[in-house]
């Protein structure tokens, strides 16, 4: 597969995902109203912070190791181990938010479950990208985004446009999408203690993800507690979602180039001119 085809497929998938996200943002803002929409985005922000733990750095590690393994022994099991990690962290989060006296416990639980499913799809995306199947990965991303969005639209049409049904639709949609995953992506769950060296790599990747997410999301949390109300959070969230969509459109180039350069590291003569 040429770099041009990889770039094109990845860019189209990213642009499509960004467009769907922006359209849903405006639709939810219109249906929910500024105040409830602000609360929705605030809850999503909290859940996305927990989603970093659900990911645990595995998404990036899977991509890196399948491309060119540093930890040869676990290369073929890494996706299965990441699924086991995701399940344990998701269950812990569900129990935690059910026990602790939060105002919106049920919504946070639904958000954590939905992020757990989304995280699972990203593990498979990393696997496909690591194996150089960028077109297949792009189709997979379009599939998950389409089914997830359609499921949400069906739920709010049949029932009502509330946060509960939006999150419920997301859970059902991504559950269905996982049944349509590429054949190469197997769902096997391993609960395995890893070598300390691997945990060091995961910790480094986790710190980077935390710093990145805080950079993008901390303003919503600050507005919620320091601003004039949830309406302000809602308006700000709609604007920031557009900015995020524009930023994410550029990520495919970094992804494809990273794999191309990493596969050349063992051959300096190929890497240097590149």
Mean pLDDT: 84
Report the portion of residues in β strands. Answer: under 5%
Order of helices and strands: HHHHHHHHHH
Give the overall shape, derived from the CA principal axes: globular
Stretches where pLDDT is under 50 for at least 5 consecutive residues are: none
The percent range for helix content is over 70%
Total of DSSP H or I helical runs spanning 4+ residues = 10
Rg, Å, rounded: 19 Å
Features:
single chain, 274 residues, mainly alpha
What would your notes on this structure say?
The protein has 274 residues and is mainly α. It has one domain (3-271). It is built from ten helices and no strands. The chain has helices at residues 3-55, 58-67, 78-99, 105-130, 134-158, 163-179, 196-226, 230-248, 251-262, 268-271. Helix 2 (58-67) packs parallel to helix 4. The relative contact order is 0.18. The mean pLDDT is 84.
Secondary structure: elements and pairs:
Elements: H1 3-55, H2 58-67, H3 78-99, H4 105-130, H5 134-158, H6 163-179, H7 196-226, H8 230-248, H9 251-262, H10 268-271
Subcellular location: Membrane
Pfam family, one: Polysacc_synt
Membrane topology: Multi-pass membrane protein
Task: Summarize the entry for a quick read.
The chain is mainly α and 274 residues long. 80% of the residues lie in helices and 0% in strands. It has helices at residues 3-55, 58-67, 78-99, 105-130, 134-158, 163-179, 196-226, 230-248, 251-262, 268-271.
